[in-house]
């Protein structure tokens, strides 16, 4: 069965990168990386979430690449990065380290933005040498550090063992998502987006999520179900901002508030009324503005950049 492709028109159409390369992770896994924008510009690194791809950041890339060097990569098994049997928070941290090392010069610092599992990637890598060397500040969008399944409100049931058990089985399902149909759009919108999400937002997200292989979706669901990065949050010792939607059913605001309390240098939590889990798509201008402000405050435009050879 052919997989959906990203939208090709509008603000959610992925722009063409200036170059593409392959970063090699600690276990030899190849990680697909895209670089957008001018060399020598302040750097931004984007880590997408579960079942997504670099296409998820299309709106941010299009805006920021005018005067930033934007580095986006596909998590293992997502987008153009091959699947790997190694699915763990350590693997997420290894892959981010590999991307930072491959794209940034020694000592060069960047703002790192992570959405959902991408935010968990930032937490997992927080004590790693490459993160400590290169992270100037972070933006955590719609994410959490633990208790993802018990806190999820995808099912309109009272919190407790029954809701947790059913939610875990739904999120960990091996069932194929199938083609992007009107019914599929309605289901995805209910589970992952706010009720006022525009059709173009829903279409863009549906195409991205439905393109994720079910084996990859299932494998990473186990990592999320058992996630425990509470200790790692306290190692994120750079300025951090948090964005969350009040209608987020996958990582409700309770997670954002817990992160804010645990982060050593939290600069604020923005709760977006009526917005769901897909904040970079549902609130693209706000997320882009937050990234840009972090770059202005914490990244020097005069840092050296390193040319990276293209890889097939």
Automatic annotation (TrEMBL):
GO MF entries: hydrolase activity
Coiled-coil parts of chain: none
InterPro entries in alphabetical order: AB_hydrolase, AB_hydrolase_1, AB_hydrolase_fold
Keywords tagged on the record: Hydrolase
The keyword Hydrolase is assigned to this record: yes
Keyword Hydrolase: yes
Domain AB hydrolase-1 span(s) in chain numbering: 44-287
UniProt-recorded name of the protein: Alpha/beta hydrolase
Organism field: Streptomyces erythrogriseus
């Amino acid at each position: 069965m052919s997989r959906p492709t990203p939208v090709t028109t509008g603000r959610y159409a992925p722009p063409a990168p200036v170059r593409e390369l392959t970063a090699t992770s600690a276990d030899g896994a190849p990680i697909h990386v895209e670089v957008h924008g001018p060399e020598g510009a302040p750097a931004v690194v984007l880590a997408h979430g579960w079942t997504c791809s670099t296409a998820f950041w299309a709106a941010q890339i299009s805006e920021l690449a005018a005067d930033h060097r934007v580095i986006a990569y596909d998590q293992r098994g997502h987008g153009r990065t091959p699947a790997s049997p190694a699915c763990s928070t350590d693997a997420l941290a290894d892959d981010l380290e590999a991307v930072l090392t491959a794209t940034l010069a020694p000592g060069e610092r960047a703002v790192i933005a992570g959405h959902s599992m991408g935010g968990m990637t930032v937490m997992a890598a927080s004590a790693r040498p490459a993160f400590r060397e290169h992270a100037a500040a972070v933006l955590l969008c719609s994410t959490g550090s633990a208790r993802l399944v018990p806190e999820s409100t995808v099912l309109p049931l009272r919190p407790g063992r029954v809701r947790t058990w059913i939610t875990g089985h739904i999120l960990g399902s091996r069932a194929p998502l199938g083609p992007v149909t009107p019914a599929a759009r309605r289901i995805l919108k209910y589970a992952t987006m706010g009720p006022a999400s525009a059709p173009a937002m829903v279409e863009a997200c549906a195409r991205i999520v439905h393109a994720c292989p079910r084996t990859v979706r299932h494998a990473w669901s186990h990592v999320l179900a058992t996630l425990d990065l509470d200790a790692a949050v306290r190692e994120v010792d750079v300025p951090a901002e948090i964005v969350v939607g009040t209608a987020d059913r996958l990582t409700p605001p309770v997670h954002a508030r817990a992160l804010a309390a645990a982060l050593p240098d939290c600069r604020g939590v923005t709760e977006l009324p009526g917005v769901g889990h897909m904040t970079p798509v549902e609130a693209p201008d706000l997320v882009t503005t937050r990234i840009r402000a972090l770059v202005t405050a914490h990244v020097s435009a005069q840092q050296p950049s390193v040319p990276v050879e293209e890889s097939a």
